[in-house]
């Protein structure tokens, strides 16, 4: 698992998506992240400090390649803009639905 | 592990599941280009809701729910 910063995560994700295009798939996972990288202490020990703000852990996987990144609250808008751009450009294999002309238009033309 | 047929039902179920247990929930999307679909999944290790998106207009909705959920995940409480 490679921990990357936000923009290089998207770049790597694009590469992964290109590789997965022909015959495989890729997954992207979102999860809340409290910043602790250790397990919950056993009973009788002091518990881990409660974080003041939560973050979002974003992971991607294709076959055995795994990458991840941590989103902080202030990075969310820029990251989501980049991610939706990514979705539009890479997840383009879905069926296109023809727009049905509304009755008014048909009557006009 | 059943696929929800209706998008609205999935959206509500996924958000409710996340709100009930934010610490253990994860939201996954899997894209299979050769089959032309996106699988969405929300699980808290006990229950699981899934949705299969096959049409282009679904992408917009997926974008919306994703940014919504990420907004919830990276927040103060």
Automatic annotation (TrEMBL), chain A:
The keyword Cytoplasm applies. GO terms for biological process: SRP-dependent cotranslational protein targeting to membrane. One of its GO terms (cellular component) is signal recognition particle, endoplasmic reticulum targeting. It comes from the Eukaryota. The keyword Ribonucleoprotein applies. InterPro entries: Signal_recog_particle_SRP14, Signal_recog_particle_SRP9/14. One of its GO terms (molecular function) is 7S RNA binding. It is found in: Cytoplasm. Gene3D superfamilies: Signal recognition particle alu RNA binding heterodimer, srp9/1. Heterodimer with SRP9; binds RNA as heterodimer. Component of a signal recognition particle (SRP) complex that consists of a 7SL RNA molecule of 300 nucleotides and six protein subunits: SRP72, SRP68, SRP54, SRP19, SRP14 and SRP9. PANTHER family: SIGNAL RECOGNITION PARTICLE 14 KD PROTEIN. Component of the signal recognition particle (SRP) complex, a ribonucleoprotein complex that mediates the cotranslational targeting of secretory and membrane proteins to the endoplasmic reticulum (ER). SRP9 together with SRP14 and the Alu portion of the SRP RNA, constitutes the elongation arrest domain of SRP. The complex of SRP9 and SRP14 is required for SRP RNA binding. This is Signal recognition particle 14 kDa protein.
Automatic annotation (TrEMBL), chain B:
Its main location: cytoplasm. Pfam families: SRP9-21. Keywords: Cytoplasm, Ribonucleoprotein, RNA-binding, Signal recognition particle. It is found in: Cytoplasm. The keyword Lipid biosynthesis does not apply. InterPro entries: Signal_recog_particle_SRP9/14 (IPR009018), SRP9 (IPR008832), SRP9-like (IPR039914), SRP9_dom (IPR039432). One of its GO terms (biological process) is negative regulation of translational elongation. GO terms for cellular component: cytosol; signal recognition particle, endoplasmic reticulum targeting. Residues 4-73 form the SRP9 domain. GO terms for molecular function: 7S RNA binding. Belongs to the SRP9 family. This is Signal recognition particle 9 kDa protein. The lineage of its organism: Eukaryota, Metazoa, Ecdysozoa, Arthropoda, Hexapoda.
